[in-house]
From TrEMBL:
MF annotations from Gene Ontology: zinc ion binding
All residue ranges annotated as the ZSWIM4-8 C-terminal domain in the record: 929-1106
Region (Disordered) location: 1-43
GO cellular component: Cul2-RING ubiquitin ligase complex
UniProt-recorded name of the protein: ZSWIM4-8 C-terminal domain-containing protein
InterPro entries: ZSWIM4-8_C (IPR048370)
Highest classification ranks of the organism: Eukaryota, Metazoa, Chordata, Craniata, Vertebrata
Source domain of life: Eukaryota
Organism in which the protein naturally occurs: Pygocentrus nattereri (Red-bellied piranha)
Any one Pfam family match given in the protein's UniProt record, by short name: ZSWIM4-8_C
Length: 1115
């Protein structure tokens, strides 16, 4: 039987150079009758046991290359050949799915489209010749595209597809829908596929005439494609010295692979490179990050199927990652990569750990991987494990002087890249006998007589332990699970959990002996230097996923072709732990327990923004997984037990009584515990929440027991706080925990008081306390029910604390906070409002107290809201007036007007407020404030008081000659109009002030004109007589104003002529016209104006054009 050597494209098959050794086309011994036209596959009967031939053929077809079978046996009967060829095609649709779609669902994916093509009868002309399958797949016509038929060819070997060709020209990592449709047709309908033995077998049965006829017919049918190739081959065969005649036999593309060929699924390496490069170039946008994560998931899927393409595909991905041009750019600029990109690199590193920990990989493979990893790791652009470029980053830490010890520590720290852990994992092996027994048996235990005393291999119950660095041990679990050994992974995971349990108990015993000393110090230096949550290898997430995977209720419709919507949350069921003696253990309960252990571990906050952000993100991921568990009695029991242990765990627990100042806070974890425990054990839930509320890193000084940061060795930043980049997020989580507890404590005065005290003690951010106050207020005042007065009081107390915290500091939300507090106090009642009015100086600025607080309290809406009677209204008004007067005394500039307004209805208070204004007028009040109050007084019917205040305001004003648009002009005109309306005496008193303060000619002329238009004293002040005569500009007080106006015009004219430009000549002539109008008000005004013009002509005769314009207008 001739040998197959792959399946090159049809146009190149005859040009391919044959390998050195060939199986001969001719056989020395005659075979039986040929296969003839070839029957189709026999129809298998349901429930019929397989024959021994089929059992053997299945095993051989999966494991042996057909060339090896031919070498082993001199003659293979044709029925045996048929069954081997039959069983050599892949049998599992999931394998086809793996190579045609990402794991994410969607109707547009090739696998689902292939199923639709198959089910709608689009596959036809299916023929299997040896290890080669061909057929046609027709794409139905659409509105925009006509019907089109594609020719599909598939080569396969040992239940793997080794090459595919499709007329659609698909360029993708995955098989197209047409290849999927043909493959599934062969898997689902094998009885409808015509089967032929490899073509060399058919040729062997032909005589010379038949062979010649076959070749000539073949050339005739495809003469345009194969005629040149046929002639070339004929020439070589006829030449005795040609290379083709030196080789025994001839190639057969339908005869399967040779012994030396790699037995792996077809993977288009070039397309993998191109797509990864394209996704990276998009920088995480347009869903590229999701696509790359899907490619990583595909690698894990391949590993789980024990497909060698997993490592091959990851190598291709890594090569493109290392070729990313942004790496060198980030390094040159000293900036960190984006979070999305950083997460992709983390997953890349974790996958390589899985690859090298393959329990059945050969030492040569591991050596090759180690060599490649070292090559990548040694490159300067290789990202570091901590997410930065180490000491090369120009940040504040490097700008500060470092001690010699700090420099030495930095110099001795090895460079750890994202591949370092994978390189370290290359030194791990699976030959340990204890480890082998753990993963190979569910019933591996120590004999009962050996269970007394300490043991490093078994716990007191005889169950096996695995004492290893926890993240490394979990990496082994992940490797077993990833490489398709779920049962073994579960066994090792259980051993690790038993080890953690024993360590937890021993740590508790140690703490009990040291408890008194640690509590006296109030702080501990004992904590884990390497946290499990946020670790690059994600040990807790790995154990949790391994344990819950076996408990997950699978959806039987996972391969269905129906429309796929949002992913459904997983459903879990309890699965007993295999080999457990008491039968009470469940993998689901173990998953919950190990997650609680990991989350509750006391650990130091790592250095660096990325590492700290990763801790927060990993916490949230684990909590999200925990929230998917439906808590039943067994899980609640586990939850309770672990919560108690964490509370009693001392320095080994993040919820213990004593923690290191820089321990990772437990707020996110405690919020989950509180919510989960609340329906089952309220007291325990509140103990957890109150214990976790703390945030020691924000305390001003560390107690004497704090021996420093053992992880850092030395603080190189002389700061009160360490560099916690995620502090804002941590504080918001602390606030979320407090809000959850406040909500739960509604109606319980004692618990509310306890939670309130914890908030006041531990939360240091005014904005977060304000948020808590708002949350409490919202919960306490539901729309459909009466308010909860206890929770309202808590909201008010929190609001008062915010007021005190922000009184002397700038806060852009301060006005909002003040308004909210008044609203809250109004909801609480009269006594709350009276209290804040009486103690305003500890809560508000004088301006806030008068303009917001007192004004709101005195409003009609507040009276209606509280349904106050007359004595209550008077009490409230009295407090508000007292506040107003106190504020006016303290800050008259900003509070005087508000005080007058608030005291309007009380004569004594109003007079007191007015006197405060008069006293402050000469010292600290501006003219604008005094004018505003003066206008208010006139509006309220106090014109004489208004005049007095206006006079005081004029004394503070200074209006220059060129300030003809000054905002105070309207006030000056109003003050003059007021004094004019009051009478000649008031006008005479004001005009000297105006002349002294106002030097703008146009303003003075406007005042003069207004005063001459009507008689003074029109305000009708009681007890005064109005003469009704117009005032003359030749007599006082207007004479003084006229002289000042003329003088202002003369001075202004000279000032303007100093720097005048031709474009302003016209405007200047108009100005002189207005000046003439004022001059003419005087008896000798025309003479004065003429002299003025003559002086201008003489002084500014150099400005000929301007003087010409002056002569034209004024002579």
């Amino acid at each position: 039987m001739a040998e197959g050597r792959g399946d090159p494209p049809p146009s190149l098959q005859l040009l391919s150079s044959p390998p050195a050794s060939k199986r001969p086309c001719l056989r020395p011994a005659p075979r039986g009758p040929g296969p003839g036209p070839g029957p189709v596959f026999p129809i298998s009967r349901p429930r019929c046991p397989e024959s021994l031939l089929d059992c053997a053929a299945k095993a051989v077809a999966e494991k042996w290359a057909f060339e090896r079978v031919e070498e082993r046996f001199e003659r293979i009967p044709e029925p045996v050949q048929r069954r081997i060829v039959y069983w050599s095609f892949p049998r599992n649709e999931r394998e086809i799915c793996m190579y045609s779609s990402f794991q994410s669902a969607g109707d547009g994916l090739p696998f689902r489209r292939g199923i639709r093509l198959l089910e709608t009868g689009c596959v036809d002309n299916v023929l299997q010749v040896g290890f080669h399958l061909s057929g046609t797949v027709t794409e139905p016509a659409t509105q925009s595209e006509p019907e089109i038929t594609h020719r599909v060819a598939i080569s396969f070997d040992r239940c793997k597809i080794t090459s595919v060709t499709c007329g659609c020209g698909n360029r993708d990592i995955f098989y197209c829908a047409h290849v999927v449709a043909l493959s599934l047709y062969r898997i689902r309908k094998p009885e409808q596929v015509k089967l032929r033995l490899p073509i060399s077998e058919t040729l062997f049965q032909m005589n010379r005439d038949q062979l010649q006829k076959l070749v000539q017919y073949l050339i005739t049918a495809h003469h345009t494609e194969v005629l040149p190739t046929a002639q070339k081959l004929a020439d070589e065969i006829l030449s005795s010295n040609s290379e083709i005649n030196q080789v025994h036999g001839a190639p057969d593309p339908t005869a399967g692979a040779s012994i030396d060929d790699d037995n792996c699924w077809h993977l288009d390496e070039e397309q993998v490179r191109e797509q990864v490069k394209q996704f990276l170039s998009q920088g995480g946008y347009y869903g590229s990050g999701k696509q790359l994560n899907s490619m990583f998931a595909k690698v894990r899927e391949m590993l789980r199927m024990r497909d060698s393409n997993g490592a091959r595909m990851l190598t291709l991905i890594t090569e493109q990652f290392m070729a990313d041009p942004r790496l060198s750019l980030w390094r040159q600029q000293g900036t960190g990569m984006t979070d999305k990109c950083r997460q992709l690199w983390d997953e890349l590193g974790a996958l390589w750990v899985c690859i090298v920990l393959n329990p059945h990989c050969k030492s040569e493979e591991k050596s090759a991987w180690l060599k490649q990893l070292k090559k990548w790791g040694d490159m300067d652009i290789c990202p570091l494990e901590d997410g930065n470029y180490g000491s090369e980053l120009p940040n504040i830490t490097n700008a500060l002087p470092q001690s010699n010890l700090a420099q030495e520590l930095t110099s001795f720290m090895p460079r750890r890249t994202v591949f370092t852990r994978a390189m370290e994992a290359c030194d791990l092996h699976w030959q340990d006998s204890h480890l082998q027994r753990i993963i190979s048996s569910d019933f591996y235990m120590s004999p009962a007589y050996q269970r007394e005393g300490e043991s490093l291999l078994f716990n007191p119950q005889g169950l096996p332990l695995w004492l290893d660095h926890v993240p490394t041990a979990c990496a082994r679990v992940d490797a077993l699970r990833s490489h398709g050994y779920p049962r073994e992974a579960l066994r090792l995971a259980v051993a690790i959990i038993n080890t953690l349990r024993l360590q937890q108990q021993r740590q508790l015993d140690i703490y009990k002996h040291q408890k008194k000393e640690l509590l006296q110090r109030g702080m501990t230096s004992t904590t884990n230097l390497e946290g499990w949550v946020g670790h690059p290898l994600d040990p807790i997430g790995c154990l949790f996923a391994t344990l819950t995977e076996t408990c997950r209720v699978e959806d039987d419709n996972a391969m269905d072709t129906g429309d796929s919507g949002e992913p459904k949350p997983p459903v879990y069921q309890h699965v007993p732990v295999w080999g457990c003696s008491d039968g009470g253990e469940s993998y689901l309960a173990l998953a919950l327990e190990v997650a609680l252990m990991g989350m509750g571990q006391q650990r130091l906050m790592p250095e660096g923004l990325y590492a700290q952000d990763k801790v927060c993100r990993n916490e949230e991921q684990i909590v999200a997984k925990l929230q998917e568990l439906e808590l039943d009695e067994l899980l609640v029991q586990t939850l309770r037990k672990q919560a108690v242990l964490l509370l009693e765990g001392g320095p080994f627990s993040g919820l213990g009584e004593v923690i290191h100042r820089e321990s990772v806070p437990m707020h996110t974890f405690a919020k989950y515990l509180f919510t989960a425990l609340l329906p089952h054990d309220t007291d325990l839930a509140y103990k957890i929440g109150l214990r976790a509320m703390r945030l020691p890193v924000l305390e001003s000084t560390a107690p004497s027991g704090d021996v420093g940061h053992p992880h850092h060795g030395i603080s190189i930043v002389p700061s009160r706080y360490p560099r916690w980049f995620t502090l804002g997020h941590l504080e918001s989580q602390q606030c979320e925990l407090a809000s959850t507890m406040l909500t739960a404590a509604k109606g319980d005065m004692l618990r509310l008081r306890t939670v309130l005290e914890a908030i006041q003690k531990n939360i240091h951010s005014s904005s977060l306390i304000f948020k808590l106050a708002q949350d409490a207020f919202k919960i306490a005042t539901p729309a459909d029910n009466p308010p909860d007065i206890t929770l309202l009081n808590v909201a008010l107390e929190l609001g008062l604390q915010v007021m005190r915290m922000t009184l002397s500091t700038l806060n852009w939300r301060r006005r909002e906070m003040v308004r909210w507090l008044v609203t809250c106090a109004t909801e609480v009642g009269l006594r709350a409002l009276v209290s804040i009015l009486q103690s305003w100086y500890t809560l508000f600025t004088p301006t806030e107290a008068t303009s917001i607080v007192a004004a709101t309290v005195m409003s009609h809406n507040t009276v209606l809201r509280l349904s106050l009677d007359y004595p209550q209204r008077e009490e409230l008004a009295g407090c508000a007036r007292t506040l107003a007067l106190q504020c006016a005394m303290k800050d008259p500039q900003n509070c005087a007007l508000s005080a007058l307004t608030l005291c309007e209805k009380d004569h004594i208070a109003f007079e007191t407020a007015y006197q405060i204004v008069i006293d402050a007028a000469s010292t600290g009040m501006s003219y604008s404030q005094l004018f505003t109050i003066a206008r208010y007084m006139e509006h309220r019917g106090y014109p004489l008081r208004a005049f007095k205040l206006a006079s005081l305001a004029m004394a503070h004003l200074n209006l220059a000659y060129n300030q003809d648009t000054h905002p105070a002009i309207n006030d000056v005109l109003w003050a003059c109009a007021l004094s004019h309306s009051l009478g000649k005496n008031e006008l005479a008193a004001l005009i000297p002030l105006v002349v002294k303060s106002v030097h703008c000619a146009t303003v003075l002329s406007d005042i003069l004109r207004r005063c001459t238009m009507t008689a003074p004293g029109l305000a009708g002040i009681p007890g005064r007589r109005n003469s009704g005569k117009l005032m003359s500009t030749d007599k006082a007080p207007l004479r003084q104003l006229l002289d000042a106006t003329i003088s202002a015009y003369i001075n202004t004219t000279h000032s303007r002529l100093t720097h005048i430009s031709p474009r302003h000549y016209g405007e200047f002539i108009e100005f002189l016209s207005k000046a003439r109008e004022t001059f003419l008000l005087a008896q000798d005004g025309h003479i004065q104006f003429a002299q003025f013009i003559d002086n201008l002509k003489q002084i500014y005769k150099g400005k000929k054009k301007l003087m010409m314009l002056v002569r034209e207008r004024f002579g």
